[in-house]
Specification:
With 98 residues, the chain is mainly α. It has 6 helices and no strands. α4 runs parallel beside α6. The protein is elongated, with a radius of gyration of 14 Å. The chain starts with a helix and ends with a helix.
């Protein structure tokens, strides 16, 4: 999926690529497309490791898969990236409680 996406987009600055991948990943959050969304969110982290929305999405996915340790790791990064976002802190608390 990423290969086709990158060919279609062409050469763009890394942060622009991260934001484009994030937008496409967000659109893939429907249950039948989550695998594609996960791949795109992970590719955003390769460009911007502390991108809070991508970290939150991956943290919630890890939590749904029963991996509270991995969820907490993603959500800790998310909270550092956007310390004023209350929902990130709530998600982190949920992960730590599991």
């Amino acid at each position: 999926m990423l290969d086709r996406f990158d060919r279609a987009v062409g050469e763009v600055p890394p942060l622009t690529l991260a934001m484009l991948r994030y937008a496409i990943g967000f659109g893939c959050l429907l249950p039948f497309a989550w695998h594609g969304a996960r791949e795109l969110f992970e590719s955003v982290l390769a460009i911007d490791p502390d991108q809070p929305v991508a970290r939150n999405a991956l943290g919630l996915d890890a939590l749904a898969q029963g991996d509270a340790r991995q969820a907490a790791e993603h959500l800790e990064h998310a909270c550092r990236g956007d310390p004023d976002a209350a929902e990130l802190w709530l998600n982190l608390a949920r992960a730590r409680a599991e």
